[in-house]
Amino acid sequence: MWSRAVPILAAGALLACTESAAQQPAYVASSKGRVYYWTAPACKAWKRLSPRNLVRFESAAAAERAGYRPSAANGCAPPRPAAEPVRLTRGEKGERCIIERIVDGDTFQCSPVGRVRMLLIDTPELGQGDIGSEARRVLSALLPVGDTVELELDVAPRDRYQRTLAYVYRDGIMVNRELARRGVAVAAVYPPNVRHVELIRAAVDSARAERAGLWARSAFECTPADYRAKRCGR
Asked: What is the pLDDT of residue 71?
């Protein structure tokens, strides 16, 4: 009898394990952290979390509702659904995208829109050394990877490089203006995209008067536009 019962029990145990694995939540987070992880085989980072601090979720949406954002660790971000065509409406906020990468002080990669160039501002180029790095650092702090932002278009939705041109909002704050206010951007006006030009110019003038950010040194003696045009002295 035992020779027949053991295989049956083993099969039952195997079935139970399989069902348990299938029902196991696919997303986890640490109660002491801010990001969540997809527990796919390629994701190793979540295994370093303390088991007693683990919070489990059945979906990425549930984790985000709880206030967590996707992990940027290799293989740990949730799988993306097939992207639908992005429909941006001129003059309206509401098109949302998720920050993937900060390119420089005024440009970033955002899913599913692609590369976004912020309107009406210009920050130092990375080739300008530490002032370019400082501008990117400020933008990185304002737009953390994994966060969701809203975009507002003006008249011309894209530039010649096919970047989306937008006013960018996070938590209700226009990030274009915030960069100008913090003194890491000058105004860059290219009609017909001029909806918020007075707002940006006022923020730049205020930062210059207060010697905020890069205005505290001679960072803008060579403007970003002049640097790109090679008009600055050596």
From this structure: 84
- Statement: residue 74 has pLDDT above 70: yes
- Residue 190: phi, psi to the nearest 5? -130, 95
End-to-end Cα spacing for the chain: 92
Pick the catalytic residue from 117, 136, 177, 182. 117
Per domain, the residue ranges of the chain are 25-79, 95-228
Is 117 one of the annotated active-site residues of the chain?
yes
Per annotation, catalytic residue among 100, 125, 150, 152: 125
Tell me: domain 95-228, CATH 2.40.50.90, correct? yes
Residue 131: is it exposed, middle or buried by C-beta count within 10 angstroms (0-12/13-18/19+)?
Answer: buried
Rounded to a whole number of angstroms, the CA Rg of the chain reads 24
Residue 120 one-letter amino acid: L
**From 64, 100, 136, 163, the catalytic residue:** 163
